[in-house]
Amino acid sequence: MGSKGRPPVKASGLPRRPRRLPPPGPNDRRRRMTQPQLRPVPHPAPAAPPRDAGQVVLVVRDLVVTTLIGIYDYEHVKPQRLRLNLELALAPDDPAPWTHAALVETASRIVTEGHTNLLECLAERLAAALLSPNRVLTALIRLEKLDAFEECEAVGVEIVRAA
């Protein structure tokens, strides 16, 4: 900077261009500050409900239901396929509060009643309904949109909730 905080001026009266620095080398500090090193981050396996000896787990795998879900305009009118996977851990030595038929019927009814914006909200609604019998200890709920992207089989959310 020149005097009084103004940029230096050439004899022609035009301001000087700032000096260009050479490109950063492999060990240059400027390179380390401006170009972060990207490393893959290992993701842990999804958390499953804790299991106790003698615990009974009701399982529903790959239940496919068609419903209106999503925040985009076209998702408000075009139904999408959802795949549901449910695991309910029950208190040992108690009569089961759910039959498989009731579990499938209840999950299907909750998923198909009206439009839902987010998978996360739908998963929470399912968890609240499935945990309501006192004998359910934990619920694992996985919801996946099957038709969201052509590049992958499914995208979704998984939650684990305890009573």
TrEMBL record:
Q: Where is the composition biased (Pro residues)?
A: 39-49
Its lineage opens with:
Bacteria, Pseudomonadati, Pseudomonadota, Alphaproteobacteria, Rhodospirillales
> What InterPro entries does its record include?
FolB_dom (IPR006157), GTP-CH-I_C/QueF (IPR043133)
What Gene Ontology molecular-function terms does this entry list?
dihydroneopterin aldolase activity
Q: What processes in GO biological process is this protein linked to?
A: folic acid-containing compound metabolic process
Name the segments for region: Disordered: 1-51
Out of the domains of life, which is the source?
Answer: Bacteria
Where is the Dihydroneopterin aldolase/epimerase domain positioned along the sequence?
A: 58-161
Recorded protein name is Dihydroneopterin aldolase/epimerase domain-containing protein
